[in-house]
Amino acid sequence: MGRVGLALLVHEFWERARDRWVLTISALFALLCSAVTLYGKGADGVGTQLTGPSLVTLTSLFVPLVALVLGHDAVVGERERNTLGMLLSLPVSRLEVVIAKFVGRLLALLCSIALGLGGALLVAGGQATVLLRFALPTSLLGASFLAVGVLISSTSQRQVGAASLVVVTWFALVFFYDLGLLGLLVVSDGQVSPATIGWLVHLNPAGLFRTEMLRSFSGPGALDHLGVRAGSPGRAAEVLTWIGWSVLPLSLSALLLAREKEMR
Question: What is the pLDDT of residues 199-209, one digit of tens each?
Fold first, then answer.
């Protein structure tokens, strides 16, 4: 990445890091993580069993929404301010623009996640190892949804439209996706194989995060009753899924920007 791209990256990070909305969300995430940890800490003998799954649920709902909102104005905001043309005229490739905006906002998101988990670590006591398991999977979850948010921003003409698409995407991937799989099992009367369901669960970053973390806390047999263990695609496929959810949206965003430059 050239000097212009690095300057854009730093600018994006500082703009997001100083954003009151980001600071408020970071404080709220820290407060909720700390509350969950304190609740689990006060439960005699079952602290880890309570803290781990509770944090999984909280994180799988909270982080995707924050990441999507953080990325939704990355490109469309420039378009509405009439600064996108000037940005594209600089000696920087379209891919560098997308990566700079993504990485700058990702760093701000990671700071928010670190603040949330760090606040919980202060009150964790013997449950610190539980929280440390969240660091990498939560970062990957945030990066995946942030990339989707940047893609939504690249396809939108107005920030209002991008914000609406963000909400729809959040509900679709975090809530309705799993409900759809459950409906598929019901409608097919169990004819869909557990392997197929397992693959479909793991293709969704929110589902992949939940299953990875629940297996981490409760053992490999935690999801046997759902047929997920039998359909697990394996570690290599999981890594490729995480990479795909970041690389593909960013690549499509760069292609859209290149096409927009040609139209100008």
Answer: 888 899 999 99
How distant, in Å, are the alpha carbons of 95, 100, 125 from that of 85? 15, 17, 52
Q: Say if 152 falls within a structural domain.
A: yes
Number of domain units in the chain: 1
Q: Is 61 a domain residue?
A: yes
pLDDT in tens, 116-153: 887 777 776 656 666 777 888 999 999 999 999 999 99
Q: Which domain holds residue 34?
A: 3-171+246-263
Rg (CA), the chain: 20
Tokens of 263: 């139209």
DSSP summary character for residue 228 = T
Quickly tell me which residue has 């920007």 as its tokens: 257
Q: Tell me which amino acid residue 247 is.
A: V
What does 112-161 look like in DSSP terms, one character per residue?
HHHHHHHHHHHTTGGGHHHHHTTHHHHHHHHHHHHHHHHHHHHH-SSHHH
Q: Quick one: CA dihedral 33, 108, 167, 140, positive or negative?
A: negative
Residue 176 lies in a domain: no
Question: How far is the C-alpha of 112 from the C-alpha of 102, rounded, in Å?
Answer: 15
Sign of CA dihedral 22, 28, 33, 34: positive
Q: Is residue 108 part of a domain?
A: yes
Crossing angle for the helix pair 194-203 and 235-263, to the nearest 10 degrees:
50
The whole-angstrom separation of Cα 67 and Cα 258 is: 24
Query: Are the C-beta atoms of residues 145 and 68 closer than 8 Å to each other?
Result: yes
